[in-house]
């Protein structure tokens, strides 16, 4: 084999190995959602506690800097320590999960043709939530049980996330943790 071909092969193999083996420096959506520095306080008081949970107090709003891919399943855990008006908005879809009434219950809001069952909850209860977006369809799960499904009013390439700990009617204390994002199947 001529010398220049050997050198060329070595060069190409070195580039391929460097490109394929180089670790990604960009954090995944799951990593970013669990990183408190990736969120912007829009109102009230927010902190990350010693357990790694994001905690909001009072009439408080926290907005994720960026978005997650559309056609994703977004999972997290929540504990409404006090109050009764937590909300999780999925910006770009108009949908949100929360409590709008005068009793403790979580449900899917602001969707077209949504059908489901609200979940009664108690303050201090850990709740696992998953929301699956695929096209304009949305499914809402609590503790791995399908609670509601519907059609979003709008779709976007990226879904933003805004957390609310309460409102002026019921300022609360809410903990969020263990965010995970995966492709919707």
In short:
With 185 residues, the chain is mainly β. The chain has a single domain (27-183), classed as Sandwich (Jelly Rolls), CATH 2.60.120.560.
Please provide a written account of the structure.
- With 185 residues, the chain is mainly beta.
- It has one domain: Exo-inulinase, domain 1 (Jelly Rolls, Sandwich), CATH 2.60.120.560.
- It is 13% helix and 52% strand.
- It is built from 2 helices and 14 strands, in the order ααββββββββββββββ.
- It has helices at residues 3-21, 29-33, and strands at 39-48, 54-64, 68-69, 72-82, 87-91, 95-98, 105-109, 112-116, 119-120, 126-134, 137-142, 145-151, 158-164, 172-183.
- Strands 1, 2, 3, 4, 5, 6, 7, 8, 9, 10, 11, 12, 13 and 14 form a 14-stranded antiparallel sheet that branches.
- Strand 11 (137-142) and strand 12 form a beta hairpin.
- The chain starts with a helix and ends with a strand.
- Mean pLDDT is 89; it is low at 10-22.
CATH first level: which class? Mainly Beta
**How would you characterize the largest beta sheet?**
14 strands, antiparallel
The CATH architecture would be Sandwich
Overall structural domain count: 1
Question: How large is the radius of gyration?
Answer: 21 Å
Mean pLDDT across residues = 89
Topology pattern, helix = H, strand = E: HHEEEEEEEEEEEEEE
List the main descriptive attributes of the protein structure presented here:
single chain; 185 residues; mainly beta; Jelly Rolls; 14-stranded antiparallel sheet; globular
């Amino acid at each position: 084999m001529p010398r220049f071909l050997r050198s060329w092969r070595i060069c190409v193999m070195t580039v391929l190995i460097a490109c394929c083996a180089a670790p990604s420096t960009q954090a995944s959506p799951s990593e970013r959602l669990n990183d408190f520095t990736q969120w912007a306080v829009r109102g009230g008081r927010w902190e990350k506690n010693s357990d790694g949970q994001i905690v909001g107090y009072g009439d408080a709003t926290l907005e994720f800097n960026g978005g997650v891919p559309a056609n994703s399943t977004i999972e997290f855990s929540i504990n409404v320590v006090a109050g009764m008006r937590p909300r999780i908005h999925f910006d770009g879809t108009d949908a949100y999960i929360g409590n709008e009434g005068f009793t403790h219950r979580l449900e899917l809001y602001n969707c077209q043709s949504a059908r489901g069952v609200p979940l009664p909850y108690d303050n201090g209860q850990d709740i696992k939530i998953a929301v699956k977006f695929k096209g304009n369809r949305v499914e809402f799960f609590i503790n791995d049980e399908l609670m509601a499904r519907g059609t979003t009013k709008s779709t976007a390439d990226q879904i933003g996330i805004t957390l609310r700990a309460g409102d002026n009617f019921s300022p609360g204390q809410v903990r969020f943790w263990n965010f995970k994002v995966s492709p919707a199947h």
